[in-house]
Amino acid sequence: MKKFKTFYNIYSLERRFVAILLIILTLFTALAIRVFYLQIISNKHLQMLAAEEWLRDLPLSSRRGEILDSNGVSLATTITTYDVYVRARNVTEPASLAQAISNKLNIDYETAYSKVTNKSFSEILIKMQVEEATAKSLTEYKGVYLSQNVARVYPYSSLLTQVLGYCTIDNIGQAGLEAYYDKYLKGVDGKSLTQTNAQGKEIENSLSYYIPSVPGADIVTTIDVQMQTILESELQTAYIENKALGVSGIIIDAKSGAIKAMSCLPSFDLNNVPRDDISTLQQMTKNSTVVDVYEPGSTFKLVTLAAALNEGLTNVDEHFFCSGRCTVDGETIKCWKSTGHGSITLAEAFEKSCNCVFVNLALRLGIENYYDYLSLFGLGEKTGVDIASESSGIIMPKEQVKIVDLARIGFGHAIAVTELQLVNVYAKICSGKDLTPYLVEDISSEGNTLYKHTTASTDIDLKQSTIETVNALLANNINSEGNMTFIPGYDIGGKTGTAQKYDENGAIASGKYISSFIGTYPASDPEYILIVCVNEPSAGAYYGGVVAKPVGQKIFSRIFEMKAIEPNDETQLTNKPSIEMPNLVGMMLADASAKLKQLGLDAIIENEGEYVLSQLPVSGTLLYLGEIAYLITN
After folding, report:
1. Which of 4-13, 128-137, 262-271, 487-496 has the lowest mean pLDDT?
2. Quick check: 526 and 514 in contact, CB under 8 A?
3. What distance in Å separates the CA atoms of residue 237 and residue 167, rounded to the nearest whole number?
4. How many Å from the N-terminal Cα to the C-terminal Cα in the chain?
5. Nearest alpha carbon to residue 139 among 108, 110, 100, 106
6. Residue 631: its H or E element
7. Is the peptide bond before 617 cis (omega within 30 degrees of 0)?
8. Nearest Cα to 513, choosing from 474, 548, 550?
9. Strand positions, DSSP E, 339-394
10. DSSP result, 119-166
11. DSSP element (H, E) containing 572
12. Cα separation of 327 and 334, whole Å?
């Protein structure tokens, strides 16, 4: 028994020794693992934490990439500015410094003083984006530190407001190309680091560290700043003269889809963004040419024309009869000319924009066939342009379309499009190519190309004869006598539209219209296509032929002059307007109409009164034989 107890005691001691040894080994192993983790795995992280304790950093903003036009002209650039910081622990003259900040940075003295004496923070931002001379003048005071920053500058002020967009004060893109391509433009910020003691006070004669910023990439756009300037100048005039709610326009390269100019008015100076008025800012920042949809009216007749010609359902010499109205499924559809156009050919129907003829063509095509062409031309879907918030337009689902709906779509009602969609449809029909409109040609950084646009256009299913006929009919609209936007000697095509607007409840808005014009140059094989829309003109006239077409004429004329484009037919230069518009205001309508007919002018009558209240154009205007005058009655 005694031996057994001795053995048991020895065994217990051995077990305890082994247990203690295992515990010691476990502790050493854990310690070794912890040391390995701290020194090897977490080395960089711990160094960073230590640096944060002993280093104070200030940001160095990267240079935001430039936005250039197609010729290398700067549309958006950056200038060097400075952010002013104060480290209260290093300030030796708080009162003097606060006074200097108040005087030079236009900050209340009490606010400035509270910041320069607030030692609860290692550093406090006083003001961002201070010009260099002012910022550096403050560094004579101890405790003032500068961080290099950049400010966005737009050399052309309000030009391209909705296209370019703008940035926040810390250079983050908020709208337009600035937002869409922000990841390329913004670059990578750097840092300036200073050694401090445990209290956060800078150590005298200590080392400073500098991590340079990486500049953003530069963007070359498709915009031609000269064409853009012309477009915006004429739109501004139209906006004022027509007392419009808004005006807009696009010039697109019909060969590639490149957008050469794009504008919406009213707008604002990009160097003075109205940040305090959010509602106004949002409204004026919206690019209505790609966001807003509208019922196009007669400009849409080109779609019906091209489809019917392509299917062989008509030809330019076919005769139709317009009585001023037609009946479809028991519903009456009126032509814009209440007295009708009588017997006219297809070519004349397109020139005179007869609704009844295009109702006829749409019905010949049928719902299934017509919708195939809507799809072919990209209607009802986004164009794919590199602009945010693009709308796809509004098209009734095919299975819900009635015959009377099809009839209305045929002349541009019961369907809604964006301006960019419609001008792109014209580009497709006039060229026979499937194009995607775009704004950016290439993006590069320090000589390295990051992106380059490639135009991958393919033919669409249109016969060459259809393309040629459509272009010829567009030219006939503009280049024949009797047209208010005729430019002698130049091969231009075009179509006008006058569309009613609708209230939020879907009812027609009384007296509210969108007047539009689409022009092509050269008409025989378009290189440029222009669209102009005047939203709610309220100066008296609202027809596209009176309101929007003259704007298109002025834009084309100035582009020809700017680019030194010579007339292609000098024989037309001698053909000038020679009929002087008489003063018909106050005359009985019957007498006024007879007078115009005697002079060889046509008339469009607004309202059904007996006397002429106003007229367009005004008296004294020189007109071509056969040109149209508008008479507004009581």
Report:
1. 4-13
2. no
3. 29
4. 136
5. 100
6. strand 628-633
7. yes
8. 548
9. 342-345
10. TTSS-EEEEEEE-HHHHHHGGGSTTEEEEEEEEEE-TTTTTTHHHH--
11. none
12. 9
Predicted pLDDT of residue 608 = 75
Q: Which region, left, alpha or beta, applies to residue 330 given φ > 0 means left and ψ of -120 to 50 means alpha? A: left
The answer to whether residues 177 and 443 touch, using CB atoms and an 8 Å cutoff, is no
Residues ≥6 apart with Cβ < 8 Å to 224? 69, 70, 71, 260, 261
Angle at 172 (CA atoms; ends 150, 383), nearest 5 degrees: 130
Q: Give Rg (Cα) of the chain.
A: 36
Q: For residue 259, list its beta bridge partners.
A: 252
Distances (CA, A) of 234 to 54, 260, 504: 61, 16, 31
340 contact partners, CB below 8 Å, separation of at least 6:
322, 323, 324, 325, 356
Contacts 24+ apart (CB under 8 A), 613-618: 613/585, 614/540, 614/585, 615/581, 615/583, 615/584, 615/585, 616/540, 616/541, 616/546, 617/484, 617/546, 617/581, 618/581
Q: Measured between alpha carbons, how far is 571 from 426 in angstroms, rounded to an integer?
A: 29
Neighbours of 116 (CB within 10 A): 25
The distance of Cα 516 from the centroid of its chain, to the nearest Å, equals 18
Residues 6 or more apart in contact with residue 103 via CB below 8 angstroms? none
- For residue 314, CA distances in Å to 104, 264, 451 come to 76, 38, 46
CB 355 within 8 A of CB 336: yes
Q: Is 298 a catalytic residue?
A: yes
Sign of CA dihedral 280, 285, 289, 295: negative
Cα 593 from Cα 481, distance rounded (Å): 20
What's the pLDDT score for residue 147? 80
Give 445's strand partners. 448
Q: What is the mean pLDDT of residues 304-316?
A: 96
Residue of 288, 298, 353, 431 marked catalytic: 298
- Helix (H), strand (E) at residue 424: helix 419-431
Q: Token pair 């280093």 is at which residue?
A: 55
DSSP 192-238: EEEEB-TTSPBPTT--EEEE--BPPPEEEES--HHHHHHHHHHHHHH
What confidence tier does 633 reach under pLDDT thresholds 50, 70, 90?
Answer: confident
Most confident residue range from 181-185, 335-339, 475-479, 503-507 = 181-185
